[in-house]
Amino acid sequence: MTELSTATTPAVPPWADPEAQPFLRLDGVSKSFGGFEAVRGVTLDIYRGELFCLLGGSGCGKSTLLRMLAGFETPSAGRVLIDGEDQAGRAPHDRPTNMMFQSYALFPHMSVEKNIAYGLKRDGLPRAEIAARVADILALVQMTPFARRKPDQLSGGQRQRVALARALVKRPKLLLLDEPLGALDRKLREETQFELKKIQAEVGITFVVVTHDQEEAMTLSSRIGVMNAGEIVQVGTPHEIYEQPHSRFVANFIGSVNCIEGRVTGREGGHLRIACPDLGAEVTVESGFEAGAGEKVALALRPEKIAMGRTARPGFENMVTGRVEEVAYMGNLTIFQLRTDGGARLRVTQSNTTRTDADVPRIGENVQLQWTGAAGFVLGA
Amino acid sequence: MSARGLAGLRRAWSGRALVVAVPLLWLGLFFALPFLVVAKISLSELAIAMPPYLPLAEWADGALSIVLNFGNYLFLLSDGLYVAAYLESLKIAAISTLFTLLIGYPMAYVIAMARPDRRNLLLMLVVLPFWTSFLLRVYAWIGFLKSNGIINNALMALGLTDAPLQLIQTDIAVYIGITYTYLPFMILPLYANLSRLDRSHLEAAADLGARPLTTFLTVTLPQSAGGIVAGCMLVFIPAVGEFVIPALLGGPDTLMIGRVLWDEFFSNRDWPVASAVAVVMLLVLIGPILLLRRAQAREES
Amino acid sequence: MRQKFPVMTVIAVLGFVFLYAPILSLIVFSFNESRLVTVWSGFSLKWYAELFRDTQILEAAWLSLKIAVASASLALVIGTLAAFALVRFGRFRGRMALGVMVSAPLVMPEVIVGLSLLLLFVSMEGLIGWPGGRGLLTITIAHATFGAAFVAVVIQSRLVSMEMDLEEAALDLGARPLRVFFDVTLPVIAPALVSGWLLAFTLSLDDLVIASFVSGPGASTLPMVIFSKVRLGVSPDVNALATLIIVIVSLAVTVAALHITRSNRHAAR
């Protein structure tokens, strides 16, 4: 793994580089069980050294897709190429992939070191090399003191690290992780996210992670592929997925969003003007969205991008007046549910930067809601 | 590379075929095929020979002639003894099954409701007798039931009766014997069902104002219906064909069909009639067997 | 919430008494001085001595043991393969037939199984000259057949509760299917294998009806000898034999059960 550990982030990420060769290529991959199509025509390129997250709700096909990479399921159509090699007809034990299972799937009758050594033994490596590599990986995941324990003598977090080590120790071309942090409690999960990222950078192996947890995907990934009903609906960096979602599904799946219906009235350079009857106003939004005048669109606004105050402040292109209907205090931030004069319901969040709440608008109060032209984005109807 | 993968797949496939073939062939040869043989022999004629029946198919004058002889079945139907034995077997099996349910349900219920750490011990106590010899457990009841046996001695010592009661060699003894030996078969599926029962359903019923008995009758009992059917069939089906218990505990007039078959085979050496008895018994049991399969399938899902 | 009905508890307690009283009396009267097995007249071990002088019983016991060990081992192999195929292979040709043949012997009246197997052996003998007489071999085959069904049920329920991803993990780490079976599946289901074998073993040791049908002259198993003795009435040496069997089986089952609960508790943590 040392030869890869020097990998640094290049100036141009590989997915933006037209010259770059994909490391994993999915080409029109589908899978149906009986009449049910679990995965539909997924085409996707993943590059060497990426930490790619497949994100989606339960039953969206993400796990089936991962299992096809591992060789547990055979695609009904399409091809899977890893490092240029077609994986068709290859059994799981013949693939250059290893998997970390959601349940960890540690062999209960083997000690930690036996579990980790299992895959190396199957490769017929010399005993001394196996011992050395097991020792190295145990040190990497900080489990050296627990080498002789059985899985049932470990905590959840320790088991997770053993499972990771067992999959990593074979130095697969591709490491597949099925909800790797799903079984950990919240606090531990947050710490482990960073640790996983660190280990990945250290070993330089390409990771494909399946998760339903959008926060986890955002923290871990180089890029995210959002899945819905068997299809990949958008691929992008966490920033792109959050700030430039292509669809209402993606916009709603990651974070929350206010969607306000309207009609395009015109374009001024990079700005689109949209008349939103529910806001009782015409708004302007910076967007490359191609729509002719009169076309139905929706303005999407993240709740934290709306400024709220008793009086209007300068520097915002858009402003409406609203009335506070609900207030929910969350600790780090407060969520306000508002109704605009036009009748639209808007959700606005404010960071609680002080410990007092004297300035916070109360239920029933009228406030000014403002946002810049760059705050929102446009979605098709 | 991909050739190696293909070879691996082929090897995996032939391994699979072997895993399926061994039990399929074994059970096909020694479990399924014998039924066809029984069906065949039930249609042949008794002969004084070894084996004591005539072949079904014969080469006569260069032509194959197959003579099916339904005489054995007509004989079964015309002789009142066989019909009576079938009815008696069904009656005895049904009554014993009812007793087994009446004792087994409370036991399964108490075990399922017991403290978790006690449950395994109680279950083991239920299963343990099942591991010890069935024949010897039936034998033990002879000592209990005979005229100078433990029960009669106890009754006389207590002054409840002057002369010993005739317990052994009665139908009652057969009921006791079947209930006793098949009790675990009733308790285990019932326990499996009752232990899955969601406790919050009971709490919800109580919260909505149901008294414990009402809760039991309206929530617990209906939900355990599958376990009741499975347990009853697991007792009823083998009990219909029971031989040892009526032979050891029943009287000479306890006509159970398993015993009739045994005598037909070992005493009369009439293999074709014994086969016909077996075929009819199987036909009688098809309904209960289907019922059992359905109940078990429902219990598993 | 626990619902307790006193009636149920009373019946349950009586039920346990019902289960154990006959067995206890069997044991107690095996130490009785008198030939009567129902009236206590003093402690004695003479029936045990008599038992060990009875060569007919000892020979039958030895035959039964041999049959039980052989048939339980055969049943373990057949039943485990059947269970593995049924639980792990999804759909395959013959699945339905295998499923029926594995579950039917559990409830099939023994007289039918015994008669049908005998008729098969006789027919085969006429056609191909095999199995060549009846005795140890035919009884072993018969016992292995219904034992396999019981083994399959035990192993099936264990395999169903065993997560498939353990086996997938081994495959993923480079083990071939056969290797996975021996490295992962078998060790994990080992307790079930033990109880399956024990079950097949005791069922074989216990069987009277099927053995009576498929046995030939000269091959009498222990239950066959006991049955012929018991038919003539109670005799204390049978009590002594019963006591020995009960003690041995109870010890074996208790040890196995303790071992299994311990390893289960181990696995559940």
Automatic annotation (TrEMBL), chain A:
Cited InterPro entries: AAA+_ATPase, ABC_SmlMolc_Importer, ABC_transporter-like_ATP-bd, ABC_transporter-like_CS, Mo/tungstate-bd_C_term_dom, P-loop_NTPase, PotA-like, Transp-assoc_OB_typ2
Class of enzymatic activity (EC top level): translocase
Protein name: Spermidine/putrescine import ATP-binding protein PotA
Tagged with keyword Manganese: no
GO molecular-function terms, A-Z: ABC-type polyamine transporter activity; ATP binding; ATP hydrolysis activity
Pfam entry (one): ABC_tran
EC number in record: 7.6.2.11
Cellular component annotations (GO), alphabetically ordered: ATP-binding cassette (ABC) transporter complex
Self-association and partners: The complex is composed of two ATP-binding proteins (PotA), two transmembrane proteins (PotB and PotC) and a solute-binding protein (PotD).
NCBIfam families: potA
Transcription regulation listed as a keyword: no
Catalytic activity: ATP + H2O + polyamine-[polyamine-binding protein]Side 1 = ADP + phosphate + polyamineSide 2 + [polyamine-binding protein]Side 1
Gene3D superfamilies from the UniProt entry: 2.40.50.100, P-loop containing nucleotide triphosphate hydrolases (3.40.50.300)
Gene: potA
Keywords assigned: ATP-binding, Cell inner membrane, Cell membrane, Membrane, Nucleotide-binding, Translocase, Transport
Domain ABC transporter: 24-254
Any one Gene Ontology BP term: putrescine transport
From TrEMBL, chain B:
Transmembrane spans: 20-43, 92-114, 121-142, 172-192, 228-251, 271-292
UniProt-annotated location(s): Cell membrane
Record's bilayer topology term: Multi-pass membrane protein
PROSITE patterns: ABC_TM1
Keywords on record: Cell membrane, Membrane, Transmembrane, Transmembrane helix, Transport
Short name of one Pfam family: BPD_transp_1
Origin superkingdom: Bacteria
Family: Belongs to the binding-protein-dependent transport system permease family. CysTW subfamily.
Any single biological process term in GO: transmembrane transport
Protein name per its UniProtKB record: Putrescine ABC transporter permease PotH
SUPFAM superfamilies: MetI-like (SSF161098)
PANTHER family: INNER MEMBRANE ABC TRANSPORTER PERMEASE PROTEIN YDCU-RELATED-RELATED, PUTRESCINE TRANSPORT SYSTEM PERMEASE PROTEIN POTH
One GO CC term on file: plasma membrane
Residue intervals of the ABC transmembrane type-1 domain: 86-292
InterPro entries, per the entry: MetI-like (IPR000515), MetI-like_sf (IPR035906)
Keyword Zinc belongs to the record: no
TrEMBL record, chain C:
Key words of the record: Cell membrane, Membrane, Transmembrane, Transmembrane helix, Transport
Domain ABC transmembrane type-1: 61-257
Transmembrane segments: 7-31, 67-87, 99-124, 136-159, 180-202, 240-260
Location of the protein in the cell: Cell membrane
One GO CC term, this protein: plasma membrane
Keyword Membrane among UniProt keywords: yes
One Pfam family this sequence matches: BPD_transp_1
Source organism superkingdom: Bacteria
Record membrane topology: Multi-pass membrane protein
GO biological process entries: transmembrane transport
SUPFAM superfamilies hit by this protein: MetI-like
Matches recorded under PROSITE patterns: ABC_TM1
InterPro entries for this protein: Bact_Polyamine_Transport (IPR051789), MetI-like (IPR000515), MetI-like_sf (IPR035906)
Family matches, as Gene3D superfamilies: MetI-like
Membership in a protein family: Belongs to the binding-protein-dependent transport system permease family. CysTW subfamily.
Protein's name in the database: Putrescine ABC transporter permease PotI
